[in-house]
Design a protein that fits this description.
about 140 residues; mainly alpha; 2 domains; 4 helices
Length: about 140
């Protein structure tokens, strides 16, 4: 466990340090080079999250009480449903909101229609939260 935390700290510090170096450097780094560095950083974060899941998952699943042996999986499902729904909603609101802003700048009369689309995108997070509440209510 300490090994995984140590690797996580090193990756975070490396990424922050690289960002500071890129920000302070006077010569321009190519967009391709920065993009490759970001891909490597994101790939290392994904591997790190997988390691955390492998190390921490058994302790979460074993958090069940004697009267409800599947409570650990229920808590895990509630967390995943809320987390994934909010990530999806954030992506959707970013895409829809920027498009709506561009459309409203061209034609201000369609503001109401664009707000409906942004509200529908935000509804994804609410659906995930409702599913989490239903799951937690059954535990």
């Amino acid at each position: 466990m300490n090994f995984v935390i140590g690797i996580a700290i090193l990756i975070v510090l490396f990424t922050i340090g690289l960002g500071v170096v890129l920000y302070r450097s006077k010569e321009g780094w190519g967009a391709l080079k920065v993009r490759n560095i970001m891909k490597a950083s994101i790939f290392s974060y994904i591997i790190l999250i997988a390691l955390f899941m492998l190390v921490l998952m058994p302790s979460v699943v074993n958090a069940a009480s004697a009267d409800n042996p599947s409570a650990g999986f229920g808590f895990l499902a509630a967390g995943l449903s809320t987390g994934l729904a909010t990530i999806g909603a954030g992506y959707a609101v970013g895409a829809v909101g920027s498009s709506a802003l561009g459309a409203v700048s061209e034609n201000p009369r369609i503001l109401g229609k664009t707000l409906i689309f942004v509200g529908l995108a935000e509804g994804i997070a609410i659906y995930g939260l409702i599913i989490s509440i239903i799951i937690l209510g059954r535990l």
